[in-house]
Amino acid sequence: MVRKWKIIWSFMLILLIGLGIYSNVSEDETKASEKQVITIADGGWDSMQVHNYIAAFIIENGYDYPVTFINGSSIATFTGLRTGEIDVYMELWYNNMEKPYLEAVAAGEVVQLSTNLVTDDQGFYVPTYVIEGDPENGIEPMAPDLVTVDDLKKYPELFQDPEDPSKGVIIGAPSGTVIHDVLERKVKTYGLSESYNYFTPGSAGAVTASIARAFMNYEPWVGYQWSPTWAMAKYDMTLLEEPPFDEAIYNENFGTEFPENPALIAANVSFPERAPEIAEFLSNYETSSVITGEALLYMEENDATPKEAALWFLENYEEIWTEWLPEDIAEKVKAALAL
């Protein structure tokens, strides 16, 4: 009878193995297979995409989580962050998204994990040769008295709109971004709409392409820029002065300089509990405008993708990103980079 039950149990064990119910898969492999995909917002601009790929490489190779990106405008992707369709936002510009961000935090939908970087130099720029000329290349100053945004009223003919020669043109930000509406309001607040058209470019790439073209031909150009961008890292640009920042005035009509603008790393409120080790990693994630600008310049000068720029960062700034991680995770990431 005992022998009979041994035979039965042996048969059942073989059957379980055959069905995959009993497995020799390791505990780590089982846990990895159970890890849910982490979704990261992709707002479409280069610096955000570089940080997305840096984070994704570390998450996939250091923590064994799969990662995917969800594309869309700033508003659309932030809505996804609030609802949980998106887990992480790697570059959420606070001042550009202040109202919806604070609403989401107050509603218990979104949490801040870290401050990725901070910029205090966004605004209306012109190439420095427009003001100072470029003696080495025989370029005379085109607008020597151009110091402030208000001074643009003296030079609409210099920045002539090819589509409407009766006015100048100020290059703004792509539609679908919060900063687009801010800039459009600024142009009206400063009384520039009487002599300038506000142009909405199709993409951030179109803006930097127009800057590159202007520098190649020493042409006048005026428009919105910020750091980090590869154009700001490469070209000599001058920020036009605006009235000193005043919160009340700025909130009323944006009629002052921009305040200091942090780029936050934010997550859906459920994310830290679902993936605490990734939330911990992202809470340590911190770069700078200068470093990010260098990665973007690498993209431009080497015709590289954001993914390739992320790998360049990981290979060249090991002393920075290893500080974000436990030693064993950092070693796994290093091993993946060496492949």
From TrEMBL:
Residues 38-316 form the ABC-type glycine betaine transport system substrate-binding domain. InterPro entries: ABC_Gly_betaine_transp_sub-bd (IPR007210). The chain crosses the membrane at residues 7-25. Keywords: Membrane, Transmembrane, Transmembrane helix. The keyword Transcription does not apply. GO terms for cellular component: ATP-binding cassette (ABC) transporter complex. GO terms for molecular function: transmembrane transporter activity. Pfam families: OpuAC. This is ABC transporter substrate-binding protein. It comes from Oceanobacillus arenosus. The lineage of its organism: Bacteria, Bacillati, Bacillota, Bacilli, Bacillales.
